[in-house]
């Protein structure tokens, strides 16, 4: 039996910068708490423009996780948080009952022609925390544990595994790591979480003999050790954790176990009842496709 339960190809979109979307997918809504997985960029943006900026928009019922490979982004939210994120760091924002945020490309990144590339993910909050007070946390690269041996470099971003423990707060059982394999390196991946997936960012590898190319997400069978072999230098992300405590509705920027909560959030955004991001007047209007009942 193959160790790969699903091999998912990305849906490609352009939302001001190129995006490869892996989750949700037709074959599965989630891997652990991860219900949304985007690989954004790489993209360069012209100076003295707003190209690539994500204007203020709302969320409920989820935690966003941002991790960059290159470039930088400036996060602002309705709590008053202002935080630049750079490669290797983690931004964690829990929307809970409601938050608004923007993400913009800093002017020095534009002027320098620096490519912006990274991962943006949504984690469904447990049902008991869907209505929690929103919060924002930032973790610099230096706070996140790393290890390197036999051509395998690992940066543990969330969770506890491989003899390491990340300080990043987890709202449920979560595993998230950035990994680089040298050309020809082999890595034996144990069942370090109940649900696991490997996303190949660049390069390519074989997983128990099956080829997995850049841009593909391999969702693994539970409870088995798998062998990864890199044919070239390869960057990948490992993600997963405890299964969700029930299905979720994902609609526009909202996640909830309750359909009525999404309808209420949509109406609150249309009626201007969400808090504003201090100092920002732009916003993303509710698209016609989000008028859902």
Q: What is shown here, in short?
A:
The chain has helices at residues 107-111, 259-270; strands at 4-8, 11-14, 18-23, 34-43, 54-59, 62-70, 73-77, 82-85, 90-94, 99-104, 116-124, 135-139, 146-149, 152-158, 160-161, 164-165, 174-181, 186-189, 195-202, 204-207, 210-213, 217-220, 226-230, 234-241, 249-251, 254-256. With 293 residues, it is mainly β. 41% of the residues are buried.
Question: Which keywords apply here?
Answer:
293 residues, mainly beta, Jelly Rolls, 7-stranded antiparallel beta sheet, 2 helices, 6% helix
What would you say this structure looks like, in words?
The chain is 6% helix and 48% strand. The protein contains two helices and 26 strands. The chain has helices at 107-111, 259-270, and strands at residues 4-8, 11-14, 18-23, 34-43, 54-59, 62-70, 73-77, 82-85, 90-94, 99-104, 116-124, 135-139, 146-149, 152-158, 160-161, 164-165, 174-181, 186-189, 195-202, 204-207, 210-213, 217-220, 226-230, 234-241, 249-251, 254-256. The longest helix is centred in the C-terminal third of the chain and has 12 residues, at 259-270. The chain is globular and about 55 Å long.
Give me the secondary-structure topology.
Elements: E1 4-8, E2 11-14, E3 18-23, E4 34-43, E5 54-59, E6 62-70, E7 73-77, E8 82-85, E9 90-94, E10 99-104, H1 107-111, E11 116-124, E12 135-139, E13 146-149, E14 152-158, E15 160-161, E16 164-165, E17 174-181, E18 186-189, E19 195-202, E20 204-207, E21 210-213, E22 217-220, E23 226-230, E24 234-241, E25 249-251, E26 254-256, H2 259-270
Antiparallel strand pairs: 1-22, 2-3, 3-4, 4-11, 5-10, 6-9, 6-11, 7-8, 7-10, 9-12, 13-14, 14-17, 15-16, 17-24, 18-23, 19-22, 19-24, 20-21, 20-23, 25-26
């Amino acid at each position: 039996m193959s160790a790969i339960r699903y091999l998912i190809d990305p849906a490609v979109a352009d939302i001001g910068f190129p995006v490869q979307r892996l989750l949700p997918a037709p074959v599965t809504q989630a891997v652990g708490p991860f219900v949304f997985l985007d690989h954004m960029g790489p993209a360069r943006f012209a100076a003295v423009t707003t190209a690539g900026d994500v204007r203020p928009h709302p969320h409920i019922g989820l935690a966003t996780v941002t991790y960059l490979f290159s470039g930088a982004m400036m996060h602002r939210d309705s709590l008053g948080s202002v935080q630049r994120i750079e490669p290797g760091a983690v931004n964690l924002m829990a929307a809970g009952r409601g938050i608004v945020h923007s993400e913009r490309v800093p002017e020095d990144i534009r002027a320098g022609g620096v490519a912006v590339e990274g991962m943006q993910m949504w984690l469904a909050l447990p049902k008991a925390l869907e209505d929690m007070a929103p919060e924002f946390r930032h973790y610099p690269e230096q706070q996140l544990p790393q290890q390197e041996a036999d051509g395998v470099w690992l940066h543990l971003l969330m969770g506890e595994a491989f003899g390491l423990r990340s300080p990043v707060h987890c709202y449920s059982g979560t595993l998230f790591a950035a990994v680089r394999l040298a050309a020809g390196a082999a890595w034996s991946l144990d069942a370090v979480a109940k649900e696991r997936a490997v996303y190949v960012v660049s390069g390519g590898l074989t997983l128990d003999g099956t080829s997995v190319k850049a841009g593909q997400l391999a969702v693994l069978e539970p409870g088995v050790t798998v062998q990864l072999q890199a044919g070239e230098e390869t960057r990948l992300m490992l993600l997963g954790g405890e299964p969700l405590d029930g299905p979720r509705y994902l609609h526009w920027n909202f996640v909830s176990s309750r359909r009525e909560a999404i309808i209420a959030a949509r109406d609150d955004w249309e009626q201007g009842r969400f808090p504003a991001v201090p100092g920002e007047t732009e916003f993303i209007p509710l698209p016609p496709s989000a008028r859902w009942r």
